[in-house]
Amino acid sequence: MRTLFSAVLLGPFAAAAQSPTPTWSADIACIVYTHCASCHREGGAGHFPLTSFTEAFPYRNDIRDATQLRLMPPWPPDEDYRSLAHERLLTTEEVDLIAAWVNGGAPEGDPNLAPPPPAFESDWVIAQPDITARMEEYVVPPSSNDNYRCFVLPINNPVDRYITGFEVVPGNTAVVHHVLVFTDETGQAAQLDAGDPEPGYASFGGIGVSGAKLVGEWVPGAEPYFTPPGMGLPLPANADLVIQVHYPAGSTFALDSTRVNLQLSPGGFVREMALDPVLDHGPTLIDGPLVIPPGVVKTFHNQYTVPLPATITAIGPHAHLLCTRMKAFAVLPGNDTVPLIDIPEWDFRWQGLYAFRRPIHLPVGTVLHGEATYDNTTNNPDNPNDPPQWVTLGEATTDEMMLFYFGWTYGFPADTLIVVDTAAHAAHHLDCTPSTVLGLEEAAGMPALTAYPVPAEDVVHLTGLAAPGALELLDAAGRMHGRWTVAGASLTLEADHLPAGVYTAILRDRQGSPVQRARVLKR
User: Fold this and answer.
1) With 50 as the cut, is the pLDDT of residue 321 above it?
2) Are residues 50 and 166 in the same domain?
3) Which domain holds residue 490?
4) Which residue from 71, 106, 380, 455 could staple onto 60, CB 3.0 to 4.6 Å apart?
5) Is the pLDDT of residue 196 over 70?
6) How far is the CA of 111 from the CAs of 97, 120, 429, 437, in angstroms?
7) Does residue 426 fall inside a structural domain?
8) Nearest-5° angle of CA 474, CA 475, CA 477?
């Protein structure tokens, strides 16, 4: 556990508190291998590999800038609104180490101190799937229109089973915009496929089969999804697995052969789940229709009253290029508000199905709310139209959508005891730990800054402040949670409203330079 009582002296006292320059081998390799290499590797989603010093050094400035701006690792949800499972976040200390390494010349250090790079045997996260199926090779034709193509995947499933994990492995990320995965018990999809001479068949707005069930999705930035223990998505006996692949307008000749990996329940009782767009741009949209005039910034709202006891396990917002923010919350019958997700800077390139750390129980009468803001002005750099045009509901990239998918099941209050993820930070690669601690040497005559209790609950007491100045409280992502004027050597902060986690208290002098820092652990 990180100590709460360590203080860091900065700014004007740098000469007295000079820290050693971090090195790749002793410090940065551990951070990069833990948080970056899963995508930044040969065959990964990142645009360049980062599995060695030689690979990382040319991109050192990009690494520093992207981490300073909190653009990498990509994690769009606001963790202050709700902390979600498996968050991809760097701590303030990790960001500071990367900046100090780059600003110090990005030395390699002793290569013998570097942990071995992670080994990736395949592009699959589900290394040994119970079912793996790949679509027939399809050459994407050049087109000025969006191409929605459905493919029936060959699977052998003679008995009813439950899906507990699914993974989509795009065959060609340059042309695959998104993938929806369905089960079809009717055989209609196979008939449609047989009637088309090309691989798969064309279908817009779904797979063209009544009664098909959505069991998974892939969009840029998505990771495999695993259901909570004891729950699963149904895979009926002899059902076909069907994927709808969206190849966006502007695609050129390219080969695709997308794969789906499924992890199945080994047996025993499994509670049946569903994955549905409970909040949508249709019946639940209360201020529709979804039409955004040119030159307008407009926010839409949807609302749905839960008709039966439900437990939600995950949420997946979905929109396109004009969207700038998506937010969802629940209001319980007693009028308490439950935050679900807030993506304050929506980016359609980074979407996903986000699991809750513990399932959330929604009693009958709970009202689900969704909000989405769209910017159809020239101020939106992602606006596909110049000048802006009327944009309406549709599945094309240049259209718009407003969906909040929920993983859900019939609910019981005890579901909230199920643990999906409690880790405050991703486990480091091979349990490695950066060796350099920035600025722990104290300047002569400067009192140490202390924060207590450990951990804090309702209040945090800070003593040893080198007043006067201003104290800032930042979370692990660098977001400020308050700023207080300091006139004396001690200060007490209210902490009951803070989410659990590690924070940094920074004292700045009257010129704004940081002079003291302490870690704060909130339970």
Assistant:
1) yes
2) no
3) 450-522
4) 106
5) yes
6) 18, 21, 17, 19
7) no
8) 110
pLDDT at residue 360 above 80?
yes
Burial annotation 9-44 (CB, 10 A radius, 16+ → b, else e) = bbbebeeebebebbbbbbbbbbbbbbbbbbbbbeeb
Q: Could you give the number of structural domains in the chain?
A: 4
Residue 417: strand, helix, or coil: helix
Q: What is the CATH number of the domain that holds 457?
A: 2.60.40.10
Mind listing the pLDDT tens digit for each residue in 398-407? 999 999 999 9
Q: What is the dihedral of CA 213, 215, 218, 224, to 10 degrees?
A: 180
Query: Which pLDDT tens digit goes with each residue over 215-257?
Result: 988 876 678 899 999 999 999 999 999 999 999 888 888 999 9
Last-in-domain residue among 368, 395, 417: 417
pTM: 0.78
Same domain, 336 and 383: yes
CATH code at 373?
Answer: 2.60.120.230
Distance CA 347, CA 489 (A): 44
Question: Cβ neighbours of residue 191 under 8 Å, at least 6 residues apart?
Answer: none
Residue 423 is predicted with a pLDDT of 86
Whether the predicted pLDDT of 310 surpasses 90: yes
Note whether 43 and 166 are same-domain residues. no
Residues 6+ apart with CB under 8 A from 150: 189, 192, 193, 200, 201, 202, 203, 207, 208, 242, 243, 244, 245
Domain co-membership, 101 together with 139: no
